[in-house]
Design brief:
- With 250 residues, this protein is mainly β.
- It has two domains: 95 residues, Beta Barrel (Thrombin, subunit H), CATH 2.40.10; 125 residues, predicted glycosyltransferase like domains (Thrombin, subunit H, Beta Barrel), CATH 2.40.10.
- 11% of the residues lie in helices and 51% in strands.
- The chain contains two helices and 15 strands.
- The chain has a six-stranded antiparallel β-barrel. The chain has a six-stranded antiparallel barrel with strand order 8-9-10-13-12-11.
- A hairpin with a 2-residue loop joins strand 4 and strand 5.
- The termini are far apart.
Length: 250
């Protein structure tokens, strides 16, 4: 069936234990997660519309914290007969810090099956920010081409874990969606290009230069390309001077 989720669910390599903070008991295990929802496996059925105050024990600290907390409302519950377990889906209610932690946790899920000795652990420092994702300016602009041709669309001006900003000679229509490949300055994980499907969220003309800039949401990304993005953020970028809340130090 067609997937109607706005944000893809990502699965951890090993299920994480989720506790009910109100009663200090084990609620279940986290199967997958996004910035808006989650799925748990539980020892018994969960009544729809039940709201839990959850606490997830992390295997590694994120932003200096060893646990993730949030409120979750059960939207559905069913018995997985072949697996002999109960599964339930939840809508999450997050404050800005919890949302940022989930973003980093989800990125870790993307990379859980993609290892490389050159990929260092991510360290962070807290700064002020109002963005859902931290944007990073690249050390040099990266050319962007149509996926199946050598026609250049423009260059990447900045990048985040879920979006990018392009500078183009022509305007890009809002809501335009296309697949493209970004030429990397050096080979990363044996790849010369970053392959992404993007959707244009806004576009405007730059008064100073006469060209155009546009912002994009990444709508499709493989685990391998997610690893490339993380590598670029660590090694080849710097946080934009727009009051970023979290900066990757590497």
């Amino acid at each position: 069936m067609e997937n109607r989720r706005k944000h893809p669910r990502l699965a951890p390599k090993e299920y994480l234990k989720v506790f009910d903070r109100t009663h200090n008991i084990l609620l279940g295990e986290l199967v997958n997660l996004s910035s808006e929802g989650a799925m748990l496996v539980t020892p018994g059925p969960i009544k729809a519309s039940t709201v839990f105050k959850c606490r997830v024990i992390l295997t590694q600290e994120i932003l200096g914290r060893g646990e993730l907390t949030f409120e979750a409302e059960c939207r559905w519950c069913r018995k997985n007969i072949p697996a002999d377990r109960w599964e339930s889906g939840y809508r999450l209610q997050l404050n800005p810090q919890e949302a940022e932690m989930i973003e980093y946790l989800s990125l870790g899920f993307k990379l859980c099956d993609w290892g490389d000795d050159d990929l260092r652990d991510v360290r962070t420092t807290e700064l002020e920010n109002r963005r859902r994702s931290v944007r990073y300016e690249l050390e040099e602009p990266y050319p962007v081409f149509e996926l199946l041709s050598y026609r250049q669309i423009g260059v990447v001006a900045d990048l985040s874990v879920d979006g990018m900003r392009l500078i183009t000679p022509k305007p890009i229509a809002k809501d335009a969606q296309f697949a493209c490949r970004v030429k990397l300055p050096t080979t990363v994980f044996r790849e010369d290009y970053l392959m992404v499907d993007v959707k244009c969220m806004w576009s405007r003309k730059r008064d100073t230069t006469g060209d155009f800039e546009s912002g994009y949401s990444i709508v499709k990304l493989s685990k391998e390309d997610a690893a490339i993005i993380l590598h670029l953020l660590i090694h080849s970028s710097r946080a934009r001077k727009t009051k970023p809340r979290v900066r990757v130090l590497g």
